[in-house]
């Protein structure tokens, strides 16, 4: 382990607390806290995916001359500005969580997100729709960074990726809910599998989509008041007494599943690194963290081109190449089953491999999905369903291990900040990708469009192989 010198000495009692945290090998907060965090993530991903099917109706109602066939051409602007909101929110709010605490900022970010969703539901025109999506993005961008930081810091050392993935199951359910509700509320009835036989096709169905999102955000806010603060963050800020209370509670719960190992301070650093007034300085002035930041930013930026093309535009891609809107919506909705299945499966197997090895696996699964669609020639609904499920499973497969890996690559004093830079600003890749790809896709067949969108995962998975080994290592060892 790299020893830290030149900063504040870590009091012996704080070193002992860190050792006590590192010996815990099971989830040691209330199981309800996993659900509380999960509800917030359910809403976050509901909001990311609710535009997928519903945007066709939004565009037809708010954009002059918009039709289901050309809706893709109007998708880039709200998507890009939503992602610009991610960047603004995560760069401004995430560093504040490194100063005032994870829990407090989790309340603020969910409040902003919920207000943005309510604004979207009430948007009178396309300009306000775009502005509201930007406001929503401000909250979501910071929330993603802080939630993943928080989960990593309160999870056992041997299972950080696993519990990040467990929470991510709720994200997958949010995506599933967002796409299927869009199909139910905004598309006309049609015989299965060309549509949803019991769809409501409400004239303002897309507004109800965002109203539901605002309600989910309110529920998440009320639940998050129950969360404890991260004990690692408390120790860095010198609040030993509160950290002791949280740690003791975690130990008591963990001891119910078996005797705890002896706590040893052998691998715990003796000094906190010099405190910077602005958390960004801990990243940009430190050569190790600067290199990690550049690498991870490139990985996320390029990978998000694929992720957001599918997350926000899967339905629009299919309608752009001539598939009827209700049928395209059904294919996207069925595809989300793969999204949920991948999250559930990964919660059991994610710790079997180093985080970075999952990205090539995800890329292979995605391209198998494209191949299945290709075998059907884009005209076989059953094969389109199977291919869509594999595609959604594939691009989802790499997200949760990448979340865990990213949080592990930065120190506690600037973990939210580092995550914000690489993941938050990396979201711009999704927006730029849609801007560049949207004019090209209508000139391709469905298979060509899917290959074009998916190929960016190859580059992202290659970059991931240059990250450091983090599995089953303490935070202080990986990022002192």
Automatic annotation (TrEMBL):
Transmembrane segments: 27-46, 75-93, 105-124, 130-151, 163-188, 208-227, 294-323, 329-350, 357-375, 381-399, 420-441, 447-468
Domain of life: Bacteria
Keyword annotations of the record: Membrane, Transmembrane, Transmembrane helix, Transport
Classification via Gene3D superfamilies: MFS general substrate transporter like domains
Pfam (any one): Sugar_tr
PROSITE patterns listed in its UniProt record: MFS, SUGAR_TRANSPORT_1, SUGAR_TRANSPORT_2
KW Cytoplasm (keyword) present: no
Protein's organism: Gryllotalpicola koreensis
Subcellular location: Cell membrane
Coiled-coil spans in chain: none
Signal peptide feature range: none
Protein name: MFS transporter
Membrane topology: Multi-pass membrane protein
Residue stretches making up the Major facilitator superfamily (MFS) profile domain: 33-472
Main location (coarse class): membrane
Keyword Transmembrane helix in record: yes
